[in-house]
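Researcher: I'm comparing several assemblies side by side, and this is the next one on my list. It has 615 residues spread over two chains. Same procedure as the others: predict the full complex and return the structure.
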Amino acid sequence: MKTNRLLAWVAIAIGVVYFIVPLIGTFEFSLRMRRGEYSFDAYQSVFSDMQFRATFGYSMLMAFFTIIFGILLVVPTAYWVRLRLPQIRPVVEFITLLPLVIPAIVIVFGYLRLYNSSSFIPLTNSTSGTNALLMLSYITLSLPYMYRAIDTAMRSIDVATLTEAAESLGARWPTIMFRCIFPNVMSGVLSGAFITFAIVMGEFTMAALLNRPAFGPYLQLVGANKAYEPSALAIIAFAITWLSMGLLQLVSRLQKTAPRKA
Amino acid sequence: MTFLTLSKIQKSFGAVQVVRDFDMTIEKGEFVSFLGPSGCGKTTVLRMIAGFESPSGGEISIDGRSQANLKPNQRNIGMVFQAYALFPNMNVAENVAFGLKVAGKPKAEIDARVNEMLGLIKLDHLADRYPYQMSGGQQQRVALARALAPKPQVLLLDEPLSALDAKIRVSLREEIRMIQQQLGITTVFVTHDQEEALSISDRIVVMNGGRADQIGSPFEIYNRPATRFVASFVGTLNLIEAKVIDPAANRIAIGDQAITLREPLGAVKAGDTVSLALRPEAGSIAEGAKGDTALTGKVVSSNFLGSVIRTRMKVGDAVISFDMFNAPGLSPPAVGETVTLRFTASDLLIIRE
């Protein structure tokens, strides 16, 4: 019994070392820009770079729209599947899982074939069209996480009975959706939103192939041309992801312990 | 005055027919219970009245108006669910106000009606509480207030007491009945609990296999069951097989003991078997007990049930149960003892279906 416990701790220690040591190494390297002493020069250089601000802002904006349109797509879908079409739930789950098994590069090439300038819907003809295409690509990428987060939240409330209760009180679909269902799946919506945010901020393939000035391609560009800044950017990217994960944890914990207020 | 009419209602789910030729009229202000076992179609009928299911055939009308083309949110119906179905994101007052807000009522009217409803269910002091902060009984009272707030024409209660513990069930069912009588609202109550149905209903519909086996007052349903199913489902009942001796004289035999029935035997001949029903509380073995009919048998068991002692005795092949009210000086008959059960012949009912 004691040996088993010891082995478990050894396994955890190896795991921690495997993940933490490279991170410490990266952080330590990012502080070495000034010769002979530690400094935050690399971070200063990154934050003062106009391209950093532009790409970071662009990705933030894309993340915002991805979250909004993703929610508008997924919440009614998950609701409708739970309420009226439970038999197609396995099909919907399978479809939402596809972005995990189909590489992003395959998806984006598919998009470029479908929406190029000589197609019926020439989205890539204009900047706004390409931006819209990139946002839709991000929605596809975040679908596995967004759908599961919202579907799990819906499982915790009796969607069918709440809907019937609201209907018997005279409510129509928009009222039912936005006043009875949406506030009660807010934790799932927020969880999905934070994961989507983290995905969009770090995504490279789609933004690069659609030639948009996003944060992912900027990370790659800096990594190829500079020494210390890429390490600083890696730490910044980690911090953004951790912040998102931390908020996600906080929201799910609040959901478990606090009243579901509107 | 007929208020709610259900005419030849049918409902099928695929090849399975769950409601067949359901006919019924309900008076304004009446409290009707649909009673039956799981799967008998009672909830399906209720859901068709609410508009959540569409009948495969037949018509439902309320106050002379057909409900056929009306969606659930267009019918003026209040519904209370077994699982309370309070909106978790709203507090008590907001839940009660929901239907009024949806109807676009002015704020002053909403506030007044919410206060009135909370007063009716005696929960005015919990207006700011959220559903998770209340007991099941309190939540169901709020659900009742919410359903009543928009002044519906009909109130539907779908097993509203099933999820509550025994004491709360009894007090809440009395409260529901009191509020119903106070408001005079036409109410349909679905339950599988016969005691609930018997205690609060004006009329009971006993359902079996998608049909109404019997519709009648609690007294009629209990004392004059129309079918074998109603007899066995409502209350405890002895079902006794007897041989016809003389149809003209209503003479039958249970084992080797001949008795005369009050009810005419009808189209049967000597030697036929008839089914008879006798309530356990209808007979007595006490000395000097009243009754024009007697059966003698051997006691096979005697069980103490608190307020009554239920004894089973064997008469021929039939086993007949009878109840004695518990009293401090009472000594129940011993197993093997021969006793004589006296009862009135009119208590012995012929079960024809």
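Model: For your comparison table: Chain A has one domain: 54-257.
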